[in-house]
Specification:
The structure holds 2 protein chains of 2 kinds. Chain A is an alpha/beta fold. Chain A is built from 6 helices and 14 strands. Chain A has an 8-stranded mixed sheet. In chain A, strands 6-5-7-11 form a 4-stranded mixed sheet, with helices on one face. In chain A, strands 8-10 form a two-stranded antiparallel ribbon. Chain B has a single domain (about 5-245), classed as TIM Barrel (Alpha-Beta Barrel), CATH 3.20.20.
C-alpha cells in the first residue's frame, strides 16, 4: 500500500512517517503530482501559520493536485494545520484562502485573560461524538472522551454539521476536532503524538485506504 | 473545560547518558536516554524533554541521534533543548523528530532569534527557556550557560519579553530548587503565571507528588517537568497521576 505524506516544507513530518512505519508501512514523502495521484492514501501534515503553509502549497503547485486527488474518492487525512487548510478560508493575519474542499472558515480560539485561557492551547483533551457515527471511520473503536494531543490557536468552523465527526471542549467553547466528508478526513489533534489511541487512528486510516 | 495539566519527563543528557545534578551541578549518570524515554512513554508520560546539559557551555549540539532513536517508538511530543543557536539547529532538531525546541542562552544573546525562529517554525514550536535564581523577595535573576552565568536580567521582565517576541511556551527552571527534591519555587511560578498569557512549564524541585499538587493548586501553570522522581524511582507515573487526579481541582491525563 502506498501512503504518501505531502512534503511541502512545513513542520515535522518524521513523527507522522514513524507512526505509519510503526504499523509496518513505508510511507512516501513527496510533492510530485504523479506520486500523489497514485497514492492509496494521502496525508497532509502541517504546523505553524496558515498563510505560510498556503504559500508553500502554491509554490509546489499542490492545490490542484490535492483537489484532483480528493476527487478520486481515495482517503485523505489532514492533520492539525493540514486539516485547517482543507477549509475555504482562515482569519489568521486578516484573510487567507484555503484549499476549499470543506465548507467553513478557520477562526481563532476565543481568548480571555480573565478566564485564564492561554494561547496557543497545548495539551491533552477528550474527543466527543457529534452527529456522525464513528464506525467505519478513522475513529472506529475509539472510546468516547479519548484524550488526544492538541497544539493550536485556531480551529475549523465547519459549516455542515454532518461533516463534524468529533468535537472537543476548550473552556466553554466547543470546536470540531475531527471532520469527515466522504473520504476526506481532518483532525485538529496530532494522532502521531497521541500515544496508543493516536496510533489506533493511524491504523484505522490505513484500513480505510485498503 | 480547561486543558489538563501536563506531566512531562525531563531528561538532561551528557555524553549519551541521562544525568541528574543538584542546582544544575554535580552531574551524576542515571541511565540510557532511549530506554528511559521509552519506559516513561509506556508508563503514560504526557511529553518528553531532552536537554543537552552541557551544550551551551561547550558550544555544540549533539542530541539529534538520540532524538531520532527516541521518536521511533515514543509517540508523545518531544522537546529538544541545549545548544540551539541557529535556525538550522532548529531544522535539524525537527527533522530528527522533535516537535519543539527550548531556547535559553541564544535568546539572551540575541533576543531577535526568538522572533525569527517563531516566524519560521510557528510559536507552537518555540519554548523560551529560563533558568532563574532568587535574589530577594519576589526578585529573580536570569542565568545562562546551564545556570553558570548571571545576566543581570529580571526573570519576570524577560519572560514577558520572550512572550512578546513570539515564544509559544515558557519553561522556567528554578536553579535554587533544581535537584533538591524539596518542592517548586511557588512564588516564582505564581508571579510568572500572573503575567503571562502563554503556557508555562515548571521545572526544578519535584521530589514528591505533593510538590506537584502544591504547585498546580497554588499557581496557574500548565505543565510540570519532573526528573528526580522518575530517575530515582521515587514514584511511578500511573500512581503519581492517579494521586494528582484525586484532588478535585487537578486534572491530568490517565
Amino acid at each position: 500500500m502506498k501512503i504518501v505524506i505531502v512534503d511541502y516544507g512545513i513542520g515535522n513530518v518524521r513523527s507522522i512517517y514513524n507512526a505509519f512505519s510503526y504499523q509496518g508501512l513505508n510511507p512516501i514523502l513527496s510533492n510530485d503530482s504523479e506520486v500523489i495521484l497514485n497514492a492509496d492514501g494521502l496525508v497532509l501534515p502541517g504546523v505553524g501559520a496558515f498563510s505560510h503553509a498556503m504559500k508553500n502549497l502554491i509554490k509546489y503547485n499542490l492545490i490542484n493536485i490535492i483537489k484532483n486527488y480528493a476527487k478520486t474518492g481515495k482517503p485523505l487525512l489532514g492533520i492539525c494545520l493540514g486539516m485547517q487548510l482543507l477549509l475555504e478560508e482562515s482569519e489568521e493575519f486578516g484573510y487567507t484562502k484555503g484549499i476549499g474542499l470543506i465548507k467553513g472558515k478557520v477562526v481563532k480560539l476565543p481568548f480571555n485573560k480573565s478566564n485564564q485561557v492561554k494561547l496557543p492551547s497545548i495539551g491533552w483533551c477528550g474527543i466527543k461524538s457529534n452527529v456522525v457515527k464513528w464506525e467505519k471511520t478513522i475513529l472506529n473503536e475509539i472510546n468516547l472522551n479519548s484524550e488526544m494531543y492538541f497544539v493550536h490557536s485556531f480551529v475549523s468552523n465547519v459549516t455542515d454539521q454532518n461533516e463534524i465527526l468529533s468535537v472537543t471542549d476548550y473552556y466553554d467553547f466547543t470546536f470540531c476536532s475531527t471532520l469527515k466528508k466522504g473520504n476526506i478526513y481532518g483532525c485538529q489533534f496530532h494522532p502521531e503524538k497521541s500515544s496508543i489511541v493516536g496510533l489506533k487512528i493511524i491504523k484505522n486510516f490505513i484500513d480505510i485506504c485498503k | 473545560m480547561k486543558r489538563k495539566s501536563r506531566i512531562i519527563a525531563r531528561l538532561d543528557i551528557k555524553n549519551d547518558f541521562v544525568i541528574k545534578g543538584i542546582h544544575l551541578e554535580g552531574l551524576r549518570k542515571v541511565g540510557n536516554p532511549n530506554e528511559l524515554a521509552l519506559k516513561y512513554y509506556n508508563d503514560g508520560i504526557d511529553e518528553i524533554i531532552l536537554m543537552d546539559a552541557v551544550a551551551a557551555y561547550y558550544d555544540r549540539n549533539s542530541l539529534s541521534e538520540i532524538v531520532k532513536r527516541t521518536c521511533h517508538n515514543v509517540f508523545v511530543p518531544i522537546t529538544v533543548g541545549g545548544g540551539i543557536r541557529k535556525i538550522e539547529d532548529i531544522q535539524i532538531a525537527l527533522n530528527s523528530g522533535a516537535d519543539k525546541v527550548a531556547i535559553n542562552t541564544q535568546a539572551v544573546n540575541e533576543p531577535n532569534f526568538i522572533r525569527r525562529s517563531s516566524e519560521v517554525f510557528g510559536s507552537q514550536c518555540i519554548i523560551g527557556s529560563i533558568d532563574a535564581k532568587k535574589k530577594s523577595n519576589k526578585n529573580w535573576e536570569v542565568f545562562i550557560d546551564n545556570g553558570r552565568e548571571p545576566t543581570g536580567k529580571d526573570v519576570l521582565e524577560w519572560a514577558r519579553e520572550l512572550e512578546f517576541l513570539g515564544a509559544g511556551e515558557i519553561m522556567i527552571t528554578s536553579i535554587d530548587q533544581e535537584g533538591t527534591k524539596k518542592g517548586f519555587d511557588i512564588e516564582l511560578n505564581k508571579a510568572l503565571s500572573e503575567i503571562l498569557t502563554i503556557p508555562i512549564i515548571s521545572c526544578g524541585g519535584a521530589g514528591h507528588v505533593n510538590h506537584i499538587s502544591e504547585l498546580i493548586l497554588n499557581t496557574n501553570i500548565d505543565a510540570v517537568a519532573i526528573a528526580s522522581i522518575l530517575h530515582y524511582k521515587l514514584d511511578e507515573i500511573p500512581k503519581l497521576k492517579e494521586t494528582l487526579n484525586d484532588h478535585e481541582v487537578i486534572n491530568v491525563r490517565l
